[in-house]
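Lab intake sheet, docking and co-folding queue.

SAMPLE TYPE: protein with bound small molecule
LIGAND NAME: magnesium ion
LIGAND FORMAT: SMILES
REQUESTED OUTPUT: full 3D complex as structure tokens
PRIORITY: normal
SUBMITTED BY: R.K., bench team

The fields below were copied directly from the construct record.
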Amino acid sequence: MSHRMFLRSLYRLQNLSRSSSNINPKHAVFAAFQPLLHNRPYANTPQPAASASSVNQTELAKFAAIADSWWDVEGPFKPLHIMNPTRLAFLRSTLCRHFGKDPFSARPFEGLKVVDVGCGGGILSEPLARMGASVIGIDAEEKNIKIARLHADLDPVASSIEYRCTTAENLVEEQMKFDAVIASEVIEHVADPAEFCKSLSALTMSNGATVISTINRSMRAYATAIVAAEYILHWLPKGTHQWSSFLTPEELVLILQRASISVEEMAGFAYDPLTGQWSLSDDIGVNFIAFGVKISQ
Ligand SMILES: C[S@@+](CC[C@H](N)C(=O)[O-])C[C@H]1O[C@@H](n2cnc3c(N)ncnc32)[C@H](O)[C@@H]1O
Ligand SMILES: [Mg+2]
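RESULT FIELD (auto-filled):
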């Protein structure tokens, strides 16, 4: 590490601790040096303009290669299919509480305008529409959008979903606004997470909700989400995830805070190998989901 890089990290650390009084200083230290360890721009390194692309072509190619299997519940997207009830339970409880909706109604999201950013084949968009939301699903990969459209058209309710091959930053340019902006299992695949969060924030109405789920950059995630899932159990194609692209919950809270999103609730997804099911948990050590609110400006 050169002297200049070290000083830059110290400077970053000062700014991090100044702007995040409720963040554990130990985490701030790690966060400050993280870009050096992983050579990734984020936090308060100078960022490209808001219109910069969030697209990482290498990441998109991975999804394009397996796009035909989005709806194969035994295929490479099986983990997302079995995670669906758990993430929907979190969305139902947080969004209903925030928007004053009845979580026990059949269509609790009636009246909410939602964008599912990085929707892939629509595994999450479809149940959101069935729960009454008016859904726009966007994905940067055309193949995914084609599959999502074909599948949604098989169901009269899901066929109401508007699918578009585009990015969050393009919707920002169109000045679109949503009650809820959801990006599930996407941020670890984008070019610049901090810029991506700024776009998600710009798409969220004042006092609206932004929800992100992803994987923690922990040793346990390396062992389970990468080594076990890709190399031992072959749930996902090898190389699906780069450990260095994961964010810790503290880092996600910080970059969202800087994008005017205040994280109000977080939960972990715990996988039980005996039942093969996920459930909501306090353990945010591997998979986690964050619910934030757009601070009115
Ligand atoms: C792991 S999949 C998640 C799919 C869906 N959100 C779900 O959880 O069922 C990640 C998706 O993000 C999309 N993606 C990656 N980078 C993107 C970007 N910058 N803008 C929009 N979509 C992106 C990929 O094409 C892929 O479909
Ligand atoms: Mg992923």
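REVIEWER NOTE: Residues 78-99 form the longest helix (22 residues).
SIGN-OFF: pending second check by T.M.
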